Amino acid sequence: MASVAARRMVVENEEPEPKDVQRPEAMRLLEALLFASKEPLDDKTLAARLPAGVDLKAALAALQAEYAARGVNLVRVGGKWSFRTASDLSWLLTREAVQPKKLSRAALETLAVIAYHQPVTRAEIEDVRGVSMSRGTIDVLLETGWIRPRGRRKAPGRPITYGTTDAFVSHFGLEQLSDLPGLDELKGSGLLDGRLPPGFAVPLPSDDPALHEDEEPLEPGDLDLGLAPRAEPGED
Amino acid sequence: MASVAARRMVVENEEPEPKDVQRPEAMRLLEALLFASKEPLDDKTLAARLPAGVDLKAALAALQAEYAARGVNLVRVGGKWSFRTASDLSWLLTREAVQPKKLSRAALETLAVIAYHQPVTRAEIEDVRGVSMSRGTIDVLLETGWIRPRGRRKAPGRPITYGTTDAFVSHFGLEQLSDLPGLDELKGSGLLDGRLPPGFAVPLPSDDPALHEDEEPLEPGDLDLGLAPRAEPGED
Amino acid sequence: MSAEIIQFESDVVVERASDEPALVVDVEGFEGPLDLLLTLARQQKVDLSKISILALADQYLNFIEAARKLRLELAADYLVMAAWLAYLKSRLLLPDSDSPEAQSAEEMAAALAFRLKRLEAFREVAQKLLDRPQLGRDVFARGDPEPIAEIKHPQYSATLYDLLTAYAVQRQKQALGKVRFAPRKVWSLAEARSAIERLIGMSADWSCLDDYLISYVVEPELAASVRASSFAATLELVREGVLDLQQHAAFAPIYVRKHVPGPAPAKGADATPSAAVKQ
Lengths: 236, 236, 279
What we know:
The complex is a heterotrimer, with 2 copies of chain A and 1 copy of chain C. Chain A is built from 10 helices and 8 strands. Chain A is an alpha+beta fold. A 4-stranded antiparallel β-sheet of chain A has the order 5-7-6-8. Chain A starts with a helix and ends in a 19-residue tail after the last strand. Chain C has 9 helices and 5 strands; from the N terminus they run αααααβααβααβββ. Chain C has a 4-stranded antiparallel β-sheet. Chain C is an alpha+beta fold. In chain C, helix 2 crosses helix 3 and helix 3 (53-69) crosses helix 4 (76-93). Chains in contact: A-B, A-C, B-C. Chains B and C meet through strand 3, helix 6 and helix 10 of B and helix 2 and helix 5 of C. Strand 4 (94-102) of chain A pairs parallel with strand 1 of chain C.
């Protein structure tokens, strides 16, 4: 304890900054109280904890002014005082972390169908996959940034059509979408075997962003329906 | 420090108000980071969060000087930085005080032996204290989070070695382990040498997380024996 | 050494019977024999380095004796120390003779003094440590820290191979695994009945049912279904008295006509099949 006091003496002697010397003790006390408190404190609580005779209002005002330009400000919220990080520094208190995630098999399969069969509606995806699709699958794929809603099919119910994005092409190292291997290549690489029924076809996808004849554009509101939380803006 | 002095000169020549205007942004950022953090932050962490090109050392020194006379001080504990209330204001903060679990004399002495003699085995602790140690003593200390099993001594029986944690230096406000009070006297009187009784190979306490030559690492199972319920995982 | 201890212990046993006023012995207040020794040493009120180990050993042994007299349970640590001190005492009293390899009595005494000093030193630093401003007792960290918010960016990864495999596997599965049940083409009973009713209305003469059917059976695969349904419908209509039905032999063509009320149908004259079925 003594050493702390001694140290302070030394500091004050070395550095005769009149500002600090004249800084009222009440400001030190308030500073410590507000710093250590688990919750914001109101005037009444502060007054009760400070020695008698302290001009609380003046001390708070002085403290607030002193911290106004700092990285930490003395703020009053709901009639209570607390130190808070300066609002312009909120970026400092966030950390961006990359979280590696693995696509589920359903998502990967859906993505593949979208890639080959685009523009494709949900019902068409389900038809190709032979299973109905959970809502989350499209959401996850939208989150990857690899698919996007392209437009709406000119058909009853005007279902949304999906297609892949530039991010898809670049993630999978394709120069263009038409580089996706076709039927013969898939057969040649052994991914598809010979036991395929006649008439089996693999579509040749195109990444022409222009809408097809049977598509009509999305309306502005379509993207706000939560249908495409992370659709890439400006991508067409 | 030189730059701090220089800056202070400038400050003193100017009017009182420009002080804050002139205050480098780095100090604001550091202030915000250190105020916000629950744990002390080391130089590396701080540097990583600050814009490139900031003279961290100078900014920290300036900040420390600035806060030295305040109700909240910037202190260095265990090589990390943290704001703490000024130690002369403990009377003000009794409401914030958490009633610490009172350590028994046996536990306190054992803690001291571990702190000053680390890395140290149970047998060595017993040798200093001249009494066999009850199982509970180590448990109580492990529970405080101030000690941790470090490794195993390369000796018959491969006894576990104990050392202190970051929480220990932080709790007792030690800038580094060599700031343990009375360490120099202890060392000067040859009482840490272990000249007479064998067994103390390390003349100076060290919480260097790196294992000593006569230590080998704990195996994963060692920590599951309930020996270290709160060993700090990230401590290296 | 063992002789000494036995001697010592038998003394105690003898003395236990006596009714001397007991010393106040509080063994629970001590942290082991070294602590007890340290406390006794402090009573000598001299620097630990100048302490008389011999006197200390006597004091300790007296203490133990007193404790035993009171039938206090003493931890093994205390008894081991007593034994060691009794041994040390005998070595200090007797001139050091043989066994040059053994520690001298003076060295042993010095080692004990060292341990006492060391324990006292650790006591002091422990107290000094405790007197430091402690976090949460004397100094405080920010009471309401603002945690660093972690913004997690999920990063998905998949390879082209994953993608192509996923595509090929499901296409293949779908292509091969899809069992298509061709919709079974049947002529329902109701269809047959209404068709026959309409057909019968066209002619009151005997007609071969198959003739009627043929005009309906466009696709060959429907023939069986049409025949079966229409036959069942015909029987039903006969029962209801709407139709007459006749067949010459098993598997011969079946003739039907609109029911002609009255006696059994004329036979032979018009060379129509004879065995009219009437129910």
